[in-house]
Backbone:
């Protein structure tokens, strides 16, 4: 998985290296081969377990050690987008000082719904 993650980083995220400091932590994902056989509820439950814990720990590390009070941009793809929405709904609600410095988020592969925005009034879509 780490080899694939490094390859994906090189193919996708490295495009931002000339203009940004990148932080792309490892996190446990739900097995993609199992997703097709899982209900939405099962996927949701699985993603709110270990992956969520890993991502929140990575966010803590980033803000406490690397960000230095700078504005930032958050990006996610597929499961990373779903986890980004979890970050917005919980983590950023608890850390408005971090959310206020976010320039934008780019979350490809999941939907930002009207229901989500109603349930998370602190999240702004534009």
Residues:
């Amino acid at each position: 998985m780490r080899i694939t993650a490094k390859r994906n980083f090189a193919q996708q995220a490295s495009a931002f290296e000339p203009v940004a400091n990148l932080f792309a932590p490892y996190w446990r994902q739900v097995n993609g081969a199992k997703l097709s056989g899982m209900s939405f509820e099962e996927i949701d439950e699985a993603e709110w377990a270990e992956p969520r814990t890993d991502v929140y720990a990575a966010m803590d590390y980033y803000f406490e050690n690397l960000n230095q009070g700078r504005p930032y941009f958050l990006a996610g793809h597929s499961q990373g987008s779903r986890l980004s929405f979890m970050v917005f709904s919980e983590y950023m609600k608890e850390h408005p000082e971090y959310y206020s410095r976010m320039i934008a988020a780019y979350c490809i592969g999941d939907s930002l719904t009207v229901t989500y925005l109603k349930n998370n009034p602190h999240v702004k879509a534009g």
User: Anything to note?
Assistant: The first helix runs from residue 2 to 11. The mean pLDDT is 85. Residues 42-63+71-126 form one domain. Strands lie at 72-77, 102-108.
